[in-house]
Specification:
Layout (H helix, E strand, L loop, with lengths): L7 E5 L4 H16 L3 E7 H11 L10 E6 L15 H11 L1 H12 L1 H4 L6 E5 L5 H8 L3 E5 L3 H8 L1 H6 L19 E2 L8 E2 L15 H13 L4 E4 L7 H10 L3 E3 L3 H5 L20 H7 L6 E5 L8 H14 L3 E4 L14 H7 L3 E4 L4 H5 L4 E6 L3 H8 L5 E3 L6 H11 L3 E3 L6 H13 L1 H20 L6 H14 L9
Parallel strand pairs: 1-2, 1-4, 2-3, 4-5, 5-8, 8-9, 10-11, 10-13, 11-12, 13-14, 14-15
Antiparallel strand pairs: 6-7
């Protein structure tokens, strides 16, 4: 490769909102550091982004381009709904390798593609079919696991949990009979954890469960990667990261990615966004009218769903708390039912509540009027809230969200968990405590401490994540030879 030719990174996220967003941030940082970037979306999500952000939103630039591959699934009836997670995992693992392989061949046909030959692949941690494709073209493959280091360590120990008989569960009663409170004290770098805090895929009673089988395969292939990237920072997860370093030779913590992204000015990529739903910008103007730290922000992410009963309990808990609120209502938030809020709730909260279908969460959490966040505890939301000093009410739904909830509430001191059943009295009480109680004050103080540490980690003056990104670029992605784990 000529010295004047740009290195070429192919970035391919798992095709869901919570995976596309952090991968796009990482891709922008690589572009800023001199890479030609090819960002690979599924055809379905490519079309969703065009719908939500406009027909020219994915034009890219000379050195930041988009490509598509099929996901192998039939088009869903509701084009604004999140695809079934299990079906999507199984389909990508089964059907995406050949289209991705063909895409690499096309890109490496330099005379026709007009781009530099591929020099590295940055793939989502659960899109490991790309490892074989990277091997074929002889380039480094870096896996970006979009979870916390704590959750990543738990996932790595799924095979051990199965070997020790903790999963699958013997029958459905083990979900409710106290078995999930069984202490797990042998995972390196992790203390005071129970089965209920492990990512939820282990809770199946089916030994052939598709999601558990998928997770096992992805975990096994993780060890074949050239390196692992995590969107976290050393001060936040020191103990577990120290343990991970004894298991894997190349683990790079480069978070919070948004903090690193805030430091750059890149006209080519600044307007490229990742929200699969159209953002309603009016909520920012509404927030401008509210007092500092007075608004509770509610967003359950891009996948979590709830019942009509749970929604009504949340609604009346918020109403009775008398606190201003901004509530994000995804079109597919409810299980089976259309979203119809009680008319009386709408009437009594019309002066202090706002409901929108989607927003720019980064902008909302950074707004001075936001004082708390009722969240599903996805890792992106948890990290974003933690790093701007906003305390959380935690209502985890599935996967690693239970793990993030545990860390937020017990290790980092910035969260209060709410019971899964959802009672309006508990919602009201916890919102009041978070926004004005003594525990809420302690959480806000702790949140500001973590905000400062996140800023230090991403500082150009010796910050751990800033340095790790530089090392990742220099030692791996710019290396002409593949670096293997020992």
């Amino acid at each position: 490769m000529e010295k004047t030719q740009k290195p070429h990174a192919v970035c391919i996220p798992y095709p869901a909102q919570g995976h596309i967003s952090p991968m796009l941030k990482l891709a922008k940082l690589l572009h800023y550091r001199g890479f030609h970037v090819t960002f690979v979306l599924t055809e379905f999500n490519y079309n969703r982004l065009l719908k939500s952000r406009g027909p020219n939103s994915l034009n890219g630039s000379q050195h930041f381009r988009f490509e598509t591959i099929p996901d192998g699934l039939p088009p869903p009836q509701n084009l604004d709904a999140t695809q079934d997670v299990v079906d999507l995992c199984v389909s990508t693992a089964k059907n995406c390798f050949v289209p991705f392989q063909n895409l690499l061949k096309k890109l490496n046909n330099v005379s026709e593609s007009g781009v530099p030959p591929v020099s590295c692949i940055v793939s989502d941690g659960i899109m490991s079919f790309t490892l074989e494709a990277a091997e074929e073209v002889g380039v480094p493959e870096v896996l970006f696991w979009t979870v916390s280091a704590f959750s990543f360590m738990c996932y790595l120990h799924f095979p051990h949990l199965i070997e020790r008989g903790f999963s699958p569960l013997k029958d459905a009663s083990y979900q409710t009979n106290g078995y999930l409170d069984t202490k797990i004290d042998w995972i390196p770098g992790i203390k005071n954890i129970c089965l209920r805090h492990i990512p939820t895929h282990i809770r199946t009673t089916d030994p052939n469960d598709r999601m558990l089988e998928f997770a096992k395969g992805e975990i096994q292939r993780t060890y074949k990667a050239s390196a692992i990237i995590l969107n976290t920072f050393d001060a936040l997860e020191h103990d577990v990261l120290k343990s991970l370093s004894t298991m894997l030779d190349h683990v790079y913590t480069v978070g919070p990615l948004q903090h690193l992204l805030n430091q750059i000015s890149d006209d080519d990529t600044e307007t490229i966004g990742s929200n699969l739903w159209k953002e309603e910008l009016g909520c920012l103007e509404w927030l401008d009218s509210k007092e500092p730290k007075s608004v509770i922000y509610i967003n359950f992410g891009s996948i979590a769903v709830m019942t009509l009963k749970q929604m009504i309990e949340f609604a009346w808990g918020l109403a009775n708390s008398m606190q201003p609120f901004l509530w994000i209502f995804r079109p597919d938030l409810l299980v089976a039912d259309p979203i119809v809020l009680p008319p009386e709730f709408v009437r009594v909260t019309e002066d202090r509540g706002m409901l929108v279908s989607w927003c720019n969460q980064q902008q909302v959490l950074n707004h001075p009027s936001i004082g708390g966040f009722l969240t599903h505890c996805g890792w992106n939301s948890t990290l974003e809230s933690l790093c701007v000093g906003v305390p959380m009410i935690c209502w985890p739904f599935f996967a690693d969200q239970q793990t993030n909830c545990l860390c937020s509430c017990t290790q980092w001191g910035v969260g209060i968990e709410i019971d899964n059943e959802v009672k309006r009295e508990e919602v009201e009480s916890i919102v009041r405590e978070l926004m004005g109680g003594e525990k809420g004050k302690e959480m806000k103080k702790k949140g500001l401490e973590w905000k400062k540490k996140a800023e230090e980690a991403t500082s150009p003056c010796g910050g751990s994540s800033y340095s790790n990104l530089d090392k990742l670029v220099e030692e791996l992605l710019l290396s002409p030879k593949k670096i293997s784990l020992t």
